Amino acid sequence: xxxxxxxxxxxxxxxxxxxxxxxxxxxxxxxxxxxxxxxxxxxxxxxxxxxxxxxxxxxxxxxxxxxxxxxxxxxxxxxxxxxxxxxxxxxxxxxxxxxxxxxxxxxxxxxxxxxxxxxxxxxxxxxxxxxxxxxxxxxxxxxxxxxxxxxxxxxxxxxxxxxxxxxxxxxxxxxxxxxxxxxxxxxxxxxxxxxxxxxxxxxxxxxxxxxxxxxxxxxxxxxxxxxxxxxxxxxxxxxxxxxxxxxxxxxxxxxxxxxxxxxxxxxxxxxxxxxxxxxxxxxxx
Length: 285
Description:
Blueprint: E1 14-18, H1 32-44, H2 48-53, H3 75-80, H4 82-98, E2 108-112, E3 115-118, E4 121-124, E5 130-132, E6 137-140, H5 143-150, H6 158-177, H7 179-183, H8 192-210, H9 223-235, H10 238-246, H11 259-272
Parallel strand pairs: 1-2, 2-6
Antiparallel strand pairs: 3-4, 5-6
Helix pairs in contact: 1-10, 4-6, 6-8, 6-9, 8-11, 9-11
């Protein structure tokens, strides 16, 4: 994944707030760790909010954020710095969707460490990356990418990160289009929640196919880049996570789709480059 060194970055689309110790309500996560929390809640009959907003595990003290506008100015910066790479990915994703949705509204990405207050309540890092429709922000603790490799067995890499960010912005697109309100939630292999998540995977693939046209990248993504995305998608499939967490698979508790489904829908988006091919709500998935 190689940025155009001369491309200009818009750091205003990403803020780094550091870490804090405040508590609040529940923010539902879109990441792999969030699935683990939901699985534990189902196994032990615990309210997920008690896991996410209890006193245990709350970050202590404050960690300062970074003014990204001072260090993330060009594509060359994005190739050298993880936070600047996030800026570049976010810029590219939003530039693509601005061209697809006439009244597209920019969604800021908030980088945090440990925990963060959001429009959806307080969330800590155990939730994983997530999108909050109440304030239209994507929230991301960069330590998740280390966990994606160390705890979930993914290869990792820059494009695995880009896939995760593209997925969360897929939720923003769903929010703008009203899909979130129509999809319903719940759990289970055919649930609205699973269909919503698979569509976000497909939208991430659509962006990946069109990313070079946004002017941020020097060339199309390589086969190795796409393999990183597919590997990450497989690592956070419901079946694989359930198997690791409790040794068996329960389709009735699915919330995001299987590894095979997540790879399938990302590939559908990437191979077509067409958001209209991402209809996960009609027919089988």
